[in-house]
Task: inverse folding
């Protein structure tokens, strides 16, 4: 029997700021992502940064959806 990832490939990984950071704009969050600052997988996932892009690609992801704060009311999606 096929796994869910085989049926519906995971392509977008949703991430939020880590270490208590809150951004007022998605652009500010994107700039810190590009600068290599830590983020966390939405929910209770592990830490990650842009330095993990190759590993994420190897695991089937092709983009990240960056939420600038825990309110999750707007986001930016970027290719890895």
Result:
């Amino acid at each position: 029997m096929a796994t869910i990832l085989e049926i519906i490939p995971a392509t977008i990984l949703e991430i939020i700021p880590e270490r208590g950071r809150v951004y007022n704009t998605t652009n500010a969050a994107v700039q810190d992502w590009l600068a290599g600052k830590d983020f966390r997988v939405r929910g209770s996932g592990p830490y990650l940064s842009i330095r993990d892009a190759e590993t994420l690609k190897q695991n089937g992801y092709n983009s990240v959806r960056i939420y600038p704060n825990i309110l999750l009311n707007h986001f930016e999606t970027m290719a890895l």
Observations:
- The first helix runs from residue 4 to 7.
